Amino acid sequence: MTHSTYTEQAPSSLNLNTLTTFAHVPFKDEQALAQAELNYLLESQAEAVAPTKDPLTSRDRRIIGEIIEVESSSVRTIWIEGGITVWVQFVEGGRLPFDRNWFAKRVAEVKATLPETPLERNERLSDELEEACTVFGLYHGEIDWLSFSTKLYQDGRFVGFVGCNQERWYARPRQYGVNRVAGSAEQVIASLGVRAAVAA
């Protein structure tokens, strides 16, 4: 009596290291199509529920690109391994290792000489304004990004105008009037007579 054993192997056209969606399955097996579709739906739902936040700002990418002499858009992310090695991961694949101390020294040098773009300035000012608004329990209207200015509100009541010009924050309680100037968003908001929010 003879005994036959059959084993299934993945087709040679199936690359296990790439994302396979139901549209890219190379054969018409219904179970494989269903599994690929399920994987695609789970991935898209996971991204919708918890989108991955990019840990690098555009300025970070510019600094890294300047250090390793690549286009900033080609840098995906960086991480430190073992407290010794900085790894730079690229968008198109591949990565490069660097000594942590050397990399930190170069970051400080490049930061000191790399001018801030208008977008980076607005991102920095927006973050500072958000933090200050949280301290005082305020919210703001739509920001005019060209002049970086907006209106502040507390419990639906107009509080005043705030903005930043030439790296100096200003505020005024009315449309027209004298600007009150300070070195930070928190200081200038306090000059409007707003008290910090107290935790209940």
How would you portray this structure in words?
The radius of gyration is 26 Å and the shape is extended. It contains 5 helices and 8 strands. With 200 residues, it is an alpha+beta fold. Helix 2 crosses helix 3. The N and C termini lie far apart (83 Å). The model has no long low-confidence stretch (mean pLDDT 81). The chain has a 5-stranded antiparallel β-sheet. Strands 1-2-3 form a 3-stranded antiparallel β-sheet.
Summarize the structure in short.
The chain has 200 residues and is α+β, with helices and mostly antiparallel strands. 35% of the residues lie in helices and 22% in strands. It has a 5-stranded antiparallel β-sheet.
Count of helical regions: 5
Relative strand content? 15-25%
* Shape summary: extended
- Main sheet properties: 5 strands, antiparallel
Using brief descriptors, characterize the structure shown.
200 residues; alpha+beta; 5-stranded antiparallel beta sheet; 3-stranded antiparallel beta sheet; 8 strands; 35% helix
Topology overview:
Elements: H1 30-49, H2 58-68, E1 75-81, E2 85-90, E3 95-99, H3 100-113, H4 118-136, E4 139-140, E5 149-154, E6 157-165, E7 168-172, E8 180-182, H5 185-190
Antiparallel strand pairs: 1-2, 2-3, 4-5, 5-6, 6-7, 7-8
Helix pairs in contact: 2-3
